[in-house]
Design brief:
- By secondary structure, this protein is an alpha+beta fold.
- It has two domains: 210 residues, Peptide methionine sulphoxide reductase MsrA (Peptide Methionine Sulfoxide Reductase, Chain A); 119 residues, Metal Binding Protein, Guanine Nucleotide Exchange Factor, Chain A (Beta Complex), CATH 2.170.150.
- The chain is built from eight helices and 18 strands.
- The strands form four sheets. Strands 1, 11, 12, 13, 16, 17 and 18 form a seven-stranded mixed β-sheet that branches.
- A hairpin with a 6-residue loop joins β6 and β7.
- It is elongated.
- The structure holds zinc ion (ZN).
- Zinc ion binds next to loops.
């Protein structure tokens, strides 16, 4: 057997996969990985930095203190603009309009700041939001300089765009008499991302953890890192029999672990269901014990749930997929200890540049 089963798998199967799924294999491991000892003697060497186990028993999903430090919010440079959902792209890029009363922020009243969904620039404060009854989030002023006004081609209305990235937000109307300022910024929810004020709610100070296994953890971690409301995504191992597994042990199928991503998130900003839906769209849940060219039980599709509520959410989504004709192979099992992977597996694409080659987002829920 090769010292590096991932690479061996890639070499063996890349041709077949290239035909079958059109995806290239994961990039080979960085040089540091190839230098990891692999002989039996290596077991005696000090392990690389790892942490764990992190408590993930049933009912222990919410970690209250200390919450991980939230990254500073926007605006982001163009190369870090967030991927847009088809709905967000239709509105923000192609200047579409969401249906009234359908957006997630129409009735939002919490204290906080509304950011640009694409570039994260802060746009509106919650203390300027008012209920216009129109079905779209309405603000009577924007953060100074955050929003640019552009006359529509027909001159009938005035469009508002993000000053930083130029994304379409909605329109501005004046003289309607809603508030003393007599201005209504009519904004599509899908163009916004709400950040609760730090001290506004207890939930904004808590975080929760979710655990997903969907093939090579580099790609899974990359996608979850892009999600607004996700505080951190870490690559690691779960679901095996041994403590403190090393990558080499997991790769040889000796331990039973799956390459797993721990997603720490703010439940006030993104729900477990939204994360689980994304999970089912960024890997192929119909593949058993593999993901494209990466073959082996460590690449199995699995959700490790920490509560009955999470299990119900995942079961519901699997049922939806099955109704749509997918033969779902995803395992749903109780979360166990999470072992953070070696440093060279963390933030792989952020450090190396580029985008995941093994994971492509596919809309499977028919939005
Ligand atoms: Zn923007």
């Amino acid at each position: 057997m090769s010292d590096h089963p991932r690479n061996a798998s890639v070499l063996r199967l890349v041709a077949a996969c290239g035909i079958a799924c059109g995806l290239p294999a994961c990039p080979e491991k960085p040089p540091g990985a190839a230098q990891q000892p692999s002989s039996a003697d290596a077991v005696k060497t000090p392990p690389m930095e790892r942490q764990g186990p992190v408590a993930a028993a049933a009912g222990n999903v919410v970690e209250t203190s200390p919450a991980p430090k939230r990254p500073e919010r926007g605006p982001l440079p163009p190369q870090r603009w967030r991927d847009l959902t088809p709905d967000a792209e239709r509105v923000m890029v192609h200047k579409g309009t969401e249906q009234p009363f359908t957006g997630k922020y129409v009735h939002q009243k919490a204290d906080g700041t509304y950011h640009c969904r694409r570039c994260d620039a802060p746009l509106f404060r919650s203390n300027t939001k008012f209920d216009s009854g129109t079905g779209w989030p309405s603000f009577d002023s924007a953060i100074p300089g955050a929003v640019r006004e552009v006359s529509d081609a027909d001159g009938a209305r005035t469009e508002i765009v993000c000053s930083h990235c130029g994304a379409h937000l909605g329109h501005v109307f004046k003289g309607e008499g809603f508030t003393d300022k007599n201005v209504r910024h009519c904004v599509n929810s899908v163009s916004l991302d709400f950040e609760p004020a730090a001290s506004s709610t207890a939930s904004s100070q808590t975080s929760a953890a979710a655990y997903f296994a969907g093939g090579c953890f580099w790609g899974v971690e990359h996608y979850f890192d892009q999600v607004p409301g996700v505080i951190s995504a870490e690559s690691g191992y779960m679901g095996g029999k041994t403590k403190s597994p090393r990558y080499e042990d997991v790769s040889r199928h000796h331990t039973g672990h799956a390459e797993t991503v721990k997603v720490t998130y703010d439940p006030a900003r993104v729900s477990y269901e939204e994360l689980a839906r994304l999970f089912f769209e960024i890997h192929d849940p119909t593949q058993k014990n593999r993901q494209g060219p990466d073959v082996g039980s460590q690449y199995r599709s699995a959700v490790f749930v920490s509560s009955e509520t999470e299990r119900q959410v995942v079961d519901k989504l699997i049922s939806e997929l099955e109704e749509r004709g997918y033969d779902v192979a995803t395992e749903v099992t109780a979360a166990g200890p999470f072992w953070k992977a070696e440093d060279y597996h963390q933030d792989y694409y952020e450090r190396q540049g580029g985008a995941p080659s093994c994971h492509v987002r596919v809309q499977r829920f028919g939005r």
